Amino acid sequence: MKINKSYKFRLYPTKEQEQLLLQHVGNSRFIWNKLVEFNKNYQEENKKFPNQLILQKEVIKLKKEFEFIKLTHSQPLQINAQRLFQVNLKSIRPQTVQERKQKIAKAKCKPEKYRANALKKAFDYGFPNFK
Questions:
Q1: What is the SS3 assignment for 122?
Q2: Are 55 and 81 in contact (CB under 8 A)?
Q3: What SS3 class is residue 91?
Q4: How far, CA to CA in Å, does 16 sit from each of 11, 27, 42?
Q5: Alpha-carbon distance 3 to 66, whole Å?
Q6: Residues whose CB falls within 8 Å of the CB of residue 77, separated by 6 or more in sequence, listed in order
Q7: CB-CB neighbours of 81 under 10 Å
Q8: H or E stretch including 110?
Q9: Of the given ranges (35-44, 55-64, 99-108), which has the lowest mean pLDDT?
Q10: d(CA 117, CA 131)
């Protein structure tokens, strides 16, 4: 007979550790937002999405530009580039494109009062968002 066991662990960080964890999370969010902004600009200029290598090089540029980012390890920051690249790939999948078209069609049927906001959300469906 097989018995499954599980354990729960709870961390109790000190105030200093708590601040450091918040700094890491904030830096990761900052990098994500900067990469999304870079992604949109790159897409407008080149009519295509940047690949993962370009996004990772952008993370390195941002790390040189902003001193406070150097407090965070490079791996969590590079994961943001990888995640953004995956979101870009997911946004052009046929299934996502079909869902986006359905949402646009539904938004066009809404009353005039709500149509503009609904259309904006429908057109942005599947693309990366700011956090």
A1: helix
A2: yes
A3: helix
A4: 14, 17, 39
A5: 51
A6: 27, 28, 31, 59, 63, 69
A7: 25
A8: none
A9: 99-108
A10: 19
Contacts of 55 (CB under 8 A, 6+ apart): 35, 38, 39, 81, 82, 84, 85
- pLDDT tens per residue across span 15-30: 999 999 999 999 999 9
Tokens of 51: 């690949």
Helices (H) and strands (E) in the chain, counts: 5, 0
Q: Convert 83-109 to b/e letters by CB count within 10 Å (16 or more is b).
A: ebbebbeebeeeeeeeebeebeeebee
In angstroms, the Cα distances linking 24 to 53, 92, 116 are 23, 31, 37
pTM of the model: 0.79
**Residues, the chain, total?**
131
